[in-house]
Amino acid sequence: MIRKPTGTSLDRLKPGKKQDILPIEKDVPMPPIRQGASVMRETLLNMEVGDSFTVRHTASAHNHAKKLGMKICCRREDDGFRVWRIK
């Protein structure tokens, strides 16, 4: 007799229960590609020393600037941060 699974696939991942493999799901659509990283990179590449832009968080700007060999400076503003290219 074949037993059909009950509940969701996450119900089968309870602590203490031995798992041979993770549950496999079919026909789950992939979300679209995020454009944030490429936009930040392109923005930095098009900047000259002294240019600036505003963002909500500075981590992405710092990471991309470092990878591109650029120096940036960030200062807090009312609605986020302003990022300047300084070198």
**Main sheet attributes: strand count, strand direction, barrel closure:** 3 strands, antiparallel
The end-to-end span amounts to: 70 Å
Helicity level: 10-25%
Q: Please give the number of β-strands.
A: 3
Proportion of strand residues:
15-25%
The secondary-structure element order is HEHEE
Q: Could you outline the blueprint of secondary structure elements for this entry?
A:
Elements: H1 36-45, E1 52-55, H2 59-68, E2 72-77, E3 80-85
Short description:
23% of the residues lie in helices and 18% in strands. With 87 residues, the chain is α+β, with helices and mostly antiparallel strands. The chain has a domain at 34-87.
Describe this protein's structure.
There is one protein chain. The chain has 87 residues and is of the alpha+beta class. Helices cover 23% and strands 18% of the residues. It has 2 helices and 3 strands. The protein has a 3-stranded antiparallel beta sheet, covered by helices on one side. Strand 2 and strand 3 form a beta hairpin. The protein starts with 35 loop residues before the first helix and ends with a strand. The model has no long low-confidence stretch (mean pLDDT 84).
